[in-house]
Amino acid sequence: MITIPAQPDPFRFDPRRTALVMIDMQRDFIEPGGFGATLGNDVSLLAPVVDAAAALVAWCRALGIWVIHTKECHRPDLSDCPPAKLRRGKPSLRIGDPGVMGRILIDGEPGADFVPALAPAPGDLVIAKPGKGAFYATVLEDELKARHITHLIFGGVTTEVCVQTTMREANDRGFECAIVEEATGSYFPEFKDSALAMIRAQGGIVGWTMKLADMP
Ligand code: TIU
Q1: SS3 at position 77
Q2: For the chain, what is the domain count?
Q3: Which CDD domains match (predicted)?
Q4: Which residues span the domain enclosing 31?
């Protein structure tokens, strides 16, 4: 068993029953010209997450923790993209439009791929997801149950959108969840702080928050 200082109290887990869920570390969210930028966001705010997320992956690999990467993306024919999602907001380019990294948020295009530092390794699981939550319309729950996983560690982007949604989905399915502060980020720093506060409030209503600096 491993015990990490965390809030609201220490997070204790068996690495053999634990998986890392690294959310959407894709060029479309982190690099200029991708989905995040077309929504009007300053993607440079996510740059510091890359090294921390890579360090978290390395920490987990060293302990034998199973590494899972999710990517938010859609089929080329957009058949898995609800019209409401397609219509949302006033982006400069919409999902499926051609951008500087290929078609925006389309599976198989360069923009939908992971940033190089977060490239999956053999044995990792990659989950392509059409929604914000990684349990919606994917095999994630079946895969976790097949491996008898009980505890999940989270990182990735963005904290209050896909990371928090997935963590809440996981919490409702009975997984013990912890998020690593340095390894997640938002286009809105105040939203990241609020999301972390919401997760750990009320005795850990959604789960634990912990710091990479406290993970030896
Ligand atoms: N826009 C935003 O903050 N996030 C997303 O659209 N997707 C994820 O969080 N991955």
Answers
A1: coil
A2: 1
A3: cysteine_hydrolases
A4: 2-214
Taking only the tens place, the pLDDT of each residue in 38-94 is 999 999 999 999 999 999 999 999 999 999 999 999 999 999 999 999 999 899 999
Contacts of 128 (CB under 8 A, 6+ apart): 70, 71, 73, 107, 138
Q: Kindly report each contact of residues 138-141 with a partner whose C-beta sits within 8 Å and lies 24 or more positions away, as own/partner.
A: 140/68, 140/70, 141/173
**Torsions phi, psi for 26 (to 5 deg):** -105, 155
Q: Does 129 participate in catalysis according to the annotation?
A: yes
Confirm whether 132 is a catalytic residue.
no
User: Distance from the CA of 187 to the center of ligand 1, in angstroms?
Assistant: 9
Per-residue pLDDT of 160-203, as tens digits, reads: 999 999 999 999 999 999 999 999 999 999 999 999 999 999 99
Could you tell me the CATH number of the domain that includes residue 82? 3.40.50.850
Indicate whether residue 161 lines ligand 1 (CB < 6 A): yes
Give yes or no for residue 30 CB within 6 A of ligand 1.
no
Alpha-carbon span 155 to 69, nearest angstrom: 10
Read off the pTM: 0.98
Q: Which atom of ligand 1 is nearest to the CA of 161?
A: 9
